[in-house]
Specification:
This protein is α/β, with parallel strands linked by helices. It folds into two domains: 151 residues, 3-Layer(aba) Sandwich (Rossmann fold); 125 residues, Rossmann fold (3-Layer(aba) Sandwich). Helices cover 31% and strands 26% of the residues. It has nine helices and 16 strands. Bound molecules: ribose-5-phosphate. The site of ribose-5-phosphate (R5P) has 12 residues, from strand 13 and helix 7.
Length: 289
């Protein structure tokens, strides 16, 4: 298998190639003055099992198009199989028609992968793993929560209380607790379908005078996490850390979270950011085989 580093995931691709011992085939990348991309493989892919690594965080649309173009090119150039390694899966949150007339965007994205010749997708903590299972495409959804929890354990947070956001995401808290062993719970979050405003249901968790780590799949505007931090502080939590797999951290997200009383933000390198402390490379290497 050869690894092709997409423009959005150069560093992560190098880590994956290095850890796995697989050959990295560099690309030649040019962005034209009008914004279009040209991506050239610098070696033949004919007859090869190809893993193209390209995250699809902001700018999502550009990163997706680059990935589609690379995959389709690999097919045209007779690659044997094409695995798209997409650590952050754009549009995964649009996993149903929330209101009449809205698109089921994640379905569109998966069908575009198929059209471009992708035979398998590997992703990490996609927003709704269950929905990915309903597509015919072979999609591996890996979880980086244990890696994040191990980071906290190494930093002396053993026995911190693990909290996930939303009942459906309680598995994240369970996975974290299997490492931190300080108990777990979830905050019931509710997002208004029109305004996007998030509210958290009143309930008490056993976190008074305890260290807490709040886990979420994505931090985007930081609004959900900032509310969750305030919610735990009100209940008397001692130190509150925030953690997510995909630190998109748009605009003033970092400040919102820190000003709400969090000690810090720890994310993975599924998308590059100043908070991408934990690498998902070992997970991906294992899945690539
Ligand atoms: C939502 O369902 C996700 O799990 C995250 O909680 C959400 O995407 C975070 O968004 P924001 O940072 O904009 O509140």
């Amino acid at each position: 298998m050869i690894v092709i580093p997409g423009p959005a995931s150069q560093e992560l691709s190098c880590k994956i190639a290095e850890l796995s011992g697989k050959k990295l085939v560099p690309i030649e990348f040019k962005r034209f003055s009008d914004g279009e991309s040209r991506i050239r493989f610098t070696e033949s892919v004919e007859g090869e099992d190809v893993a193209i690594v390209q995250t699809t965080g902001p700018p999502q649309n550009e990163n997706l198009i680059q990935l589609f173009i690379m995959a389709n090119n690999a097919r045209d150039l007779k690659a044997k199989s094409i695995t798209a390694v997409v650590p952050y899966f754009a549009y995964a949150r649009q996993d149903k028609r929330f209101r009449p007339g809205e698109p089921f965007s994640v379905k569109t994205i998966v069908s575009l992968f198929e059209t471009c010749g992708v035979t398998r997708i590997i992703t990490v903590n996609s927003h709704n793993p269950e929905i990915l299972k309903t597509f015919t495409m072979y999609i591996d959804d890996l979880s980086a929560i244990s890696l994040l929890a191990q980071y906290f354990k190494q930093q002396g947070f053993k026995e911190a209380f693990s909290i996930s956001l939303g009942k459906k995401a309680v598995n994240m808290a369970i996975q974290a607790d299997s490492v931190l062993e300080g108990g777990y719970g979830y905050a019931s979050t509710q997002r208004d379908k029109v305004t996007g405003e998030v509210t958290i249901e009143e309930k008490t968790l056993p976190i008074k005078n305890r260290d807490v780590v709040i886990f979420d799949d994505i931090i985007s505007s930081g609004g959900t996490m900032a509310k969750a931090v305030e919610w735990t502080r009100k209940q008397g939590a001692r130190r509150v850390y925030t953690s997510c797999v995909h630190p998109l951290l748009i605009g003033d997200a970092k400040d919102r979270i820190l000003e709400s009383g969090a000690e810090g933000i720890i994310g993975t390198d599924s998308v590059p950011s100043p908070f991408s402390v934990v690498s998902v490379a070992p997970l991906i290497v294992k899945a690539l085989g």
